[in-house]
Amino acid sequence: xxxxxxxxxxxxxxxxxxxxxxxxxxxxxxxxxxxxxxxxxxxxxxxxxxxxxxxxxxxxxxxxxxxxxxxxxxxxxxxxxxxxxxxxxxxxxxxxxxxxxxxxxxxxxxxx
Length: 112
Description:
- With 112 residues, the protein is an alpha/beta fold.
- It has one domain (3-111): HprK N-terminal domain-like (Udp-n-acetylmuramoylalanyl-d-glutamate--2,6- Diaminopimelate Ligase, Chain: A, domain 1, 3-Layer(aba) Sandwich), CATH 3.40.1390.
- 41% of the residues lie in helices and 16% in strands.
- The chain has 5 helices and 5 strands.
- It has helices at residues 3-9, 34-40, 55-62, 78-87, 98-111, and strands at 13-14, 27-30, 45-48, 67-70, 90-93.
- A 5-stranded mixed sheet has the order 1-5-4-3-2, sandwiched between helices.
């Protein structure tokens, strides 16, 4: 499954345009603690977090995370969106809470 297919299936808002939509998604990880993501997220993951500051992009690039999903329709600053484009990390937004997005992602990955 690609980031674009995931975004379509989960009705996610794509904030970064075409960036990384063709990247393959193999895993998911949900955490708001950056050190936890560094220690445990796998390459080619989609990361679900309420964090919306520039440091999440550093973690994403360090761990080769292909996309970050922000739940609950939380506002994301233009600066973060522009930097994500430059770093080639897709930023996606869901109206659902993190728990529901995580469950839906899990079910999709289990079927893939």
